[in-house]
Each structure stands twice: as structure tokens, then as C-alpha cells.
Specification:
66 residues, 0% strand, mainly alpha, 434 Repressor (Amino-terminal Domain)
């Protein structure tokens, strides 16, 4: 589930929701909605998130198993 992926990455990188939002170019509220499964991101937003993960050496194949 994408919500678990976002929270897992944020926790691994020791980032607040606000810092992750800034890194991805979205609002704090967007990250909060993603983590709480209140909003499913677009495919473009997911791709951006996965690119961010790769740039931070997070294995997206393992991440997608969550």
C-alpha cells in the first residue's frame, strides 16, 4: 500500500512530513493525506516519489512489497 511506502521512506530518512513534502515539491497536507490513505496520488506523483527513493538509495522493489 502506498501509504505504508511513504511512511517507511520518511522514517528511514528521518524526515518530517514537511521536509519530505518540500523534497517532493508537494504540500505537507498532501504527504499527510498519502500517509493516512485519504488520497491516492497520481501515477506522475508516484513516479516522482520512486525517483526520490532511488536518489536516496532506497530499493523501490523492496519498497513496493510493503
Amino acid at each position: 500500500m502506498f501509504a505504508n511506502q511513504v511512511k517507511n521512506v520518511r522514517t528511514q530518512l528521518e524526515m518530517s512530513q514537511k521536509k519530505l513534502a518540500n523534497a517532493l515539491g508537494v504540500s505537507f497536507a498532501t504527504i499527510n493525506r498519502w500517509e493516512n490513505s485519504r488520497n491516492e496520488p497520481s501515477q506522475l506523483a508516484k513516479n516522482s516519489f520512486y525517483e526520490f527513493c532511488e536518489s536516496n538509495f532506497i530499493d523501490i522493489n523492496e519498497l513496493k512489497k510493503l
